[in-house]
Amino acid sequence: MLNIPNRRLVLAHFWLAFLAFFLALILGEWQMYIRSPLHTWLGNPELYYRSVTAHGSAMGYVFPTLVAMGFGYAIVELALKQALVGLRWAWAGFGLVVVGTVVAMVPVALGKASVLYTFYPPLIGNPFYYIGVVLVVVGSWIWVALMAVNLRAWRRANPGATVPLAMFANNAGAYLWAWTSVGAAIEILFLILPVALGFKTTIDAGLARVFFSWTLHAIVYFWLMPAYIAFYTLVPRAIGGRLYSDAMARISFILFLVFSMPIGIHHLFQDPQVGTGVKFLHAVFTAMVSVPTLLTIFTICASVEIAGRLRGGAGSFAWIARLPWKNPMMLALALSFIMLGFGGAGGLINMSYQLDFAIHNTQWITGHFHLIFGGAIVIMYFALAYDLWPHLTGRALNAWKLMRVQLWLWFVGMMVLTMPWHWVGILGMPRRMAYYDYTATDLAPMSLSVIITFSGGLLLLASGALFLWILASGHRGATVPLPAFRFSAPVHAGARIPAALNGFGLWLALMIGLSVINYGFPIAQLINTPNTAVPAVPIR
C-alpha cells in the first residue's frame, strides 16, 4: 500500500479527474439531446458552443492529465519502492491544475470563451480562459519534472539497474507530454494572448493552427499512455499470467515517444497554408504510429494466451475459455481492444490525404476520436482505478459484478454512440453544429441515427454514475490487509535489457529532431510570409 501522504495525493488527482469527467459527460449528453429530433431548435445556439468548449476542455486537458499525474505518482512508490521526492511540489502542481481549471471554466460558463478546446483562431475568447489552460499545463509540467527527478534519484541509489517497466513507460509519457504541449503553449503565449489582452487586433490563424497541430494529435498518445501502461504492467498480473516480453513493451513506448510528434499536420489536410509535401510527410509518419499499436496488440494477446494456458487451457483456441472473464481487468482489456480495432481502422481513413476529403469535419471525426479516447482509453482508466483503489483506501473493493455491469454499459454505450456517427459522417453530416433541420431532404434519413446516438449517451451516463458510486463505496468497505502491490512479471524475468531500452537520451534526441524536420519548414515559411494576419473575432 502507498504511504499515507502519497495516497492522499493520488486520490486527490483521481477524484478531481473523475468528477470533471462526469460533469463533462453530462454536458456531452445534453449536446446530443438538443441537436437531435427529440428537441426543437435551441433558442440561443451559443449555449451549445459554450457547452462544447467546457466538455472538450475538461475531457481533453483536465481529465486525462490528472489521471496520468495521479497514476505517475503512484508508480513512483509502487515500482521504484521509494517515497516520492518533491511531495510539496506535487501538491503545488495539483493546485495549479485546480486553479487553472476554475480560471478557464468561469469565462466559458459566462459565454466569454466559446472557442472549443482547439481554440479556433481568429476566434478570440476571454484571456482568462487561455490563462487557465496555461496554468493547467504548467501544473502538469511540474509533474513531468518530478518524474525525471524521482527516476534520477532511483538511478543514483541503484546504479546500473534496469528501470522497472512501469516507471520507464510512465516517464516516456511524461516526456512526450512535455514536448507536445509546447506547441499549444507557443500558440497561446505568443499568438492568442496578445490579441486577447488587447495588444493586437489581428492574428495569423494559419500559423496558430500549425502550432496547435503540434499538440493536437500527439496529445492523444499522452492520453493513451496510462491505458497502455495498464495493458503491459497490470493486465497480465491481474489475470494470473505473465508479460510476454518486457523488451517489446519498451520498444512500443519508445516508438510512441519518437513518432507521436511529427504527425499532427494530417489534421490540416484541407488547410491551404501548408504545402502538399509537408502533408505527405506527416501522412507517412502517421502510418508509423500503427507499429507500436500492432506490437502492443501482439504482445498483450500473447500475454493473455500465457494466462489461459497457465490456467489449464490447451489447443489452438481452447485456452480462451479458461481466461478469468469475470475479472473486470480481463473484461476491460477485451472491450478496449475491440474499440481500439474499430477506432484504428477509422484512423486509416483520416490519415489518407485522398480519403480525408470525404469525411473531413463530418461526424465521422467525432465518432473516431470518441471511440479511441472515450472508448478504448477511458475504459482502461476505469480498470486501473479499480485495480489501484484498495491500495489507495486500504479497503476492499469487491463489487466485481457491478464493475462488469459498468464496463459493459460503457462499451455498449460507446458503440451505440459512435457507430451511427461514422455512418452519418460518410453521408456528409457536419460536426459541431448547434442544430440540424431534419425536414431537409439530405438530413431527414439521418434523424434516426442521431436518436440512436442519444440513446448511447444515456448508457454512458449511467455507466459513469455507476463508476463513481463503486469508487465511493470503496471508501466504506471493510479494512483488509493487502499484499505488496505487484506489477506484471515478464516471462523471462531477469533477462538483460539493452542500454538503449533503459534510458531516454537517444529517443528524446530523435523525437526533437523529427519534430524540427517535420515542423521547422512550415513554421519558418509561415513566419516569413507577409500579410498573413487576419482580423480577430472576439467572443462577446
From TrEMBL:
GO MF: cytochrome-c oxidase activity; heme binding
Chain ranges of the Cytochrome oxidase subunit I profile domain: 1-501
Keywords: Electron transport, Membrane, Respiratory chain, Transmembrane, Transmembrane helix, Transport
Superkingdom of source: Bacteria
Record-annotated membrane-spanning stretches: 12-34, 54-76, 88-108, 128-153, 174-199, 211-235, 247-269, 281-308, 329-349, 369-386, 407-426, 446-472, 493-517
One term under GO cellular component: membrane
A Pfam family reported for this protein in Swiss-Prot or TrEMBL: COX1
PROSITE patterns associated with the record: COX1
Coiled coil: none
Stated name of the protein: Cytochrome C oxidase subunit I
Species per Swiss-Prot/TrEMBL record: Duganella aquatilis
